[in-house]
Amino acid sequence: MAKYFDVHPDNPQPRSIGQVVDILREDGLIAYPTDSCFALGAQLGNKDGMDRIRAIRHLDDRHHFTLVCQNFAQLGQFVIINNAVFRAIKASTPGSYTFILPATKEVPRRLLHPKKKTVGVRIPDHVAAQALLAELGEPMLSSTLLLPGEEEPMTQGWQIKDELDHQLDAVIDSGDCGVEPTTVIDFSTDEPEIVRVGAGDPSRFE
C-alpha cells in the first residue's frame, strides 16, 4: 500500500519530504504534484520503477521519459545545449515545459529514445516538487500521471491513493496543482518543434 503524505503547499514539512526521498532511494515509485499536474517519479537508476511506470501508463519503448531537475545547472549535466537553445530554455524555467534534447553520457541508456538518443528534461515551478528534488540531490525519472484511456491527468492526491494504492509506494499531496500536462518542445533538430501544447505558453517557441 502507498503511504500518503499531506504536505503544506508553501512550507513542505522536511520530515515528510525526507521520508519520501528515503522511499525513492529504496527503489520506490511515488506520485507527486508539479506545476502542471501530478506525475510519477522514481530514482534515476531504478529500472524496476521505470518498468512500473510503463505498466501503469501502458507505454511503449518510444515514450520519452523526463528527467525532472532542481535547477538549470543540474539540467545541463544531462543534455547537450547550444547557445541559442540555452537562452530559450533558461528564459522558460522553472515552468510548465518539457524540453527534448540530445542526452549526455550521464543519462542511463535505457532512458534514451531508442533511435534519437534524446531525453526529456524539465524544471518544475512547484514548492513540494522542488523540496523533493533538493533533498534527493539529483534529477528524478518522471512521467505524467495520465492513465490509459483517460483524456486528462489525475489531479487529486486522495484519488490517486485510492486508485493506485497497490501500484505505488507513496503519494504526496499538497492541495491543488495544475490540471494540464507540460508543453513539450523538441530541440533535438535544427528548428524547435512543439510536440504537445499544455500548461506552458507555446508562443515563445513558435
UniProtKB/TrEMBL annotation:
The name this protein carries in UniProt is: L-threonylcarbamoyladenylate synthase
Q: Could you tell me which residue ranges the YrdC-like domain spans?
A: 14-200
Q: What is the lineage of its organism?
A: Bacteria, Bacillati, Actinomycetota, Actinomycetes, Pseudonocardiales
Q: Which keywords appear in this protein's UniProt record, sorted alphabetically? A: Nucleotidyltransferase, Transferase
Instruction: List, alphabetically, the PANTHER family matched.
Output: DHBP SYNTHASE RIBB-LIKE ALPHA/BETA DOMAIN-CONTAINING PROTEIN (PTHR42828), THREONYLCARBAMOYL-AMP SYNTHASE (PTHR42828:SF3)
Q: Which organism is it from?
A: Saccharopolyspora ipomoeae
Q: Which domain of life is it from?
A: Bacteria
Matching InterPro entries, A to Z? Answer: DHBP_synth_RibB-like_a/b_dom, Sua5-like_dom, SUA5_domain
Pfam families registered for this protein in UniProt: Sua5_yciO_yrdC
Q: Name one GO molecular function term.
A: L-threonylcarbamoyladenylate synthase
The record, for SUPFAM superfamilies, names: YrdC/RibB
Q: What Enzyme Commission number does this protein have?
A: 2.7.7.87
